[in-house]
Structure formats: C-alpha cells, structure tokens
Amino acid sequence: MKILLILTGGTIACKVENHQINVNKETADNVLTRYQQLYPDNTVTFDTVQPLQTLSENHTSVTYNKLIDFLYQCDFHSYDGVIMTHGSDTLSYTSAIVGMLFGHLSVPFMITASDYPLSEENSNGISNFVACVRWIENRICDGVFTVYGKKNFPVIYLATRICEANPVTDEFSAFADGIVCRFCYHKITYINNGLVSLLKNRQKKTILFSRPPVIKNDVLLIKTYPNQNFDCYTLENVSAVLIYLYHSGTACTVGESKNICRFMKQCYEKKIPVYTASHKLKQDRYVTAIETDRYTTLKLYGISQECAYSKVLLAVNQDEHPTEKILCSDIFFENCLL
Known about the structure:
Layout: E1 2-7, E2 14-17, E3 20-23, H1 30-38, E4 45-49, H2 61-73, E5 81-85, H3 91-102, E6 108-112, H4 125-138, E7 143-147, E8 155-158, E9 162-163, E10 173-174, E11 179-184, E12 187-191, H5 193-201, E13 219-223, E14 240-244, H6 260-269, E15 274-279, H7 287-292, E16 298-301, H8 305-315, H9 323-328
Parallel strand pairs: 1-4, 1-5, 5-6, 6-7, 13-14, 14-15, 15-16
Antiparallel strand pairs: 2-3, 7-8, 8-11, 9-10, 11-12
C-alpha cells in the first residue's frame, strides 16, 4: 500500500525551545519517523512532500493559493490514499476547502493534526496519524476526512462538517452528525453507517474547478452577537459579505447602528453581495428573519460557519461557474438539508 504524505506544518511538526512552540525543519517529518518506529514491519510505504511549513493561524491567501496550486498538481490516483498534516487552529477551514475541492477523489484523503508537539508524551498526533493509515488500509469509503481526537481515541469527521475546536478542551465538534467513525487504541469502535452509505452511493463527480481558484477577493465574515454595532465594520476592499446568523436565522433589526438591515442596505448600495447562513427549511419564520430577506443576495441552508465561509471564498475567487450555482450546490455533503 502506498500513501502520499503532505506536510504543511502545524503543531504536529513543531519543536519546543525556551517554552516557545514553532515549526521546525528538523521535526517536520517526525510523525512518519515515529510511525515507522512503531510499525517497522508494516507494508505501507510513503511518498513525502512538503509544500508549506507554517503555523496554521498564519494561513492567508498566499499560503492557501500555494497549497491549492500544489494539490492540483498531485497525481492522487497513483496512491491508495493521502494524508495531509496541518495545524489545529484553522483545521476546520482548510478541511472545508479541501473537502469541496477534492471530494470527487476515488481515494481517501485524510487531514490530521496534533494538540501538542510529538515530543510531548500526551500528544495525540501519532494516534491521529495511525487512524488515518488504518482508514486507508480498511478502505471503508473514499472522500475527504479530518482526523482528530484525544490520545488513543481518534475521531474521523467529514471534512466539510468539522467545527472549530473548543478553546478549553481543544476538542473539535461535528456539524449535523458529521462524525464518520471513532477509534479506540487504533481499532474501529463506531461507524456512522448512514453517512458511509451516502458516501459509497454518491454519484461519481467531476472536479469542482478544472483549474485552481486563486484567492484574491476578500470575504468579510460576520457572526451575530447581542448589541452588535455594524458601524464598526468597514466595507473597503470587501468583495462579499457572509453573515452567520443566530440558530433561528435571525439578527437584530431595530435601532440604527445595531440594525443588520441598515448594514445590509449599505452593502447593497455599494453592490457588495451579502450571503446569510445558516437557514432552515421552515414555512413559519420569525419576522426578524423575514426582514433580512430584502437585502440578502443568497441564503445558505444547513451549513457550518467554517464551510459557509470557505464556500463563499471559493465561489467569489473563480470564474468557471456562476457564484450562485456554486453556493446552491451540495458539493461534498456540506449542505445537510439538501
């Protein structure tokens, strides 16, 4: 079995010196070294490449363009599977992007990370990595998945449904039943048969874009919260606005600076599209939700904040399809209501 290992940095490639954690060339591929020490007789072989070496919180359009361009050049079908190591801070965002761009692949594409540098005993990096290898070995189903969990208890998430980690526990969560599988000491203890069935029975899809999108247009992401002052937001150099509403699909519609409709009208007057998420398919809606419809360019249904942002970002930075066609499509099971 042959696996393509893509190293991009993150804690899993870090070293601690003088209480400072940073990516280090000497430890970039330590995860593979440690895996091979644990399984010296394993028949798995790896081709290792390193397009990036960065802490994931430092991801910008520059690093994303470099990564996307690199991935488009890879011959994934020459391998039984792919593992990409990454930092945990923006893991859910990169997972969403890769999931939508490469969800068509007929091999498993696993994305994983570590909570602590591998030199620390309580690090979960190796157990996450082993789970990636085991999933590819078992070939339960293809697609893009994110692997992360407590040490010796990895969880496999659908890449387009993993949500940002809890800042206290450092554990990730799944949007709309997005957990595919659970491991316990490298053995599968749970499989979401419903989700696996969807993945296995999906129609064969072509690649979303024939050429890599180039991220140069900025998307302003706004999450609603009480007493929010929309006058604090500047619309300079903004190509699109994504507003992630309360769970009821609502936001404040009274007052002046606190009125979301007033802000959306300003966007409309500047010809900046405003997308809102996440909506439900319900006939009865709050009056505040109905009020925002007037200035909403398009509504996104049943989608996580990370995936909604990533989807809008990709849609406004490509010229192969109409933006609305991309946003209304269920690319890789990110729209749980469609």
